[in-house]
Specification:
about 350 residues; 14 helices; about 75% helix; mainly alpha; single chain
């Protein structure tokens, strides 16, 4: 099965930065919503496995809780699909590059292999049980960023000269389709809202008031890494950049290390990101909160379902744009300020 690719232009760096700052503000508001909710309704702490939905119910009732729960579950589940798609594509690319094109294991097969590989990681509990994974994830992401910058800088291909690619960038015209796609992908990238409150619940009570500082530091680092990568890729490759930049980097052992690290990072982020969905499904099916066979079967089934959908939709950029452009909008931009305003005004100000 061949992966379909497209050559979309890179989103403007300043727009990406403004977008991420706005996402950061919404994250802080959402975190403060839970602090307010605890003071308004102390019993809400009993619903700490699904805090976003609990805030929705406290604010607007049962039907808002159902709506938010639906959005969260679909968003979290769909968000894991691009991870395994890119990981599978990277493994296929790694085999081709190392073997000089002689080893070309099907993308479909790699997708199944990745699914089997991440199942044991998915069996872990909530984010509080994944501190080691989170640490590895941070180190891996930072290493990948620096190594990618090095590979871009070391690409001496004459066709990628700065002058040529700057001319290519200037020739790009405004396209509504690409703009909407860029919005969807950036929204997907910075949508940590489904996981944010789950992590906040695992924090010590005296640490929760500092959730804004934690979010700020995370967003700032993300902005710096992604902006530098975007600018370097834009000036080096221009309009010829592919959705997966690893496909056009020059062949080297540094590239092989990057591909391997990115694959590991994607597997780890899938385990951490899907935690909220897994906990909700397990509550519905009355699964124990301890490590049990039932938990393993439920989570393995959901991973298998994601693999099947990935086989049917091999365009990871299309999946990211679809989820980011349709499902994450309410979760990022509408509900947090709405909940915060309603709970902190009309005599309920704390």
């Amino acid at each position: 099965m061949k992966v379909k690719k497209s050559s979309e232009d890179i989103p403007d760096g300043s727009k990406k930065k403004s977008f991420s700052v706005l996402c950061h503000v919404m994250c802080v508001l959402l975190g403060k919503c839970w602090v307010i909710a605890e003071k308004l309704e102390p019993s809400i702490v009993q619903k700490n496995r699904y805090p976003y939905a609990a805030i929705a119910e406290l604010t607007y009732g049962k039907y808002m809780r159902i709506f938010v729960t639906f959005l969260l579950d679909i968003t979290v589940f769909g968000g894991g699909i691009p991870n395994i798609l890119v990981a599978s594509q990277n493994m296929q690319l790694l085999g081709l590059r190392i073997s000089q094109g002689s080893f070309n294991l099907s993308f479909c097969v790699w997708l199944v292999v990745i699914g089997v590989f991440i199942c044991p990681i998915m069996w872990l509990g909530s984010p509080k049980n994944m501190k080691e994974l989170a640490t590895v994830s941070v180190l891996t992401t930072t290493s990948v960023a620096f190594l990618t910058w090095y590979c871009i800088e070391m690409d001496k291909n004459l066709e990628n000269s700065v002058t040529t690619q700057q001319q290519n960038l200037k020739s790009i015209t405004f396209n509504v389709k690409n703009l909407l796609k860029a919005y969807g992908i950036i929204a997907f990238q910075f949508d940590i809202h489904p996981m944010l409150l789950t992590i906040q619940m695992d924090m010590k009570k005296n640490e929760r008031d500092h959730i804004g500082i934690v979010i700020s530091l995370g967003i700032i680092v993300t902005i710096i890494l992604s902006t530098i990568t975007t600018l370097l890729a834009a000036f080096k490759y221009g309009a010829s950049v592919t959705p997966n930049i690893l496909e056009i980097l020059p062949q080297s052992w540094t590239l092989y290390v990057i591909i391997f690290l990115v694959t590991i990072q994607l597997c780890i982020s899938s385990a951490i990101g899907n935690s909220a969905l897994f906990q909700h499904i397990e509550d519905i099916l009355s699964a124990s909160r301890d490590f049990t066979l039932k938990r393993c079967l439920i989570r393995s089934f959901l991973v298998g379902l994601a693999v099947i959908i990935g086989e049917l939709l091999p365009r990871f950029d299309m999946v990211m744009g679809l989820i980011g452009g349709t499902l994450t909008g309410p979760l990022i931009f509408i509900l947090p300020p709405l909940f915060f305003h309603t709970n902190s005004s009309s005599g309920r100000d704390i």
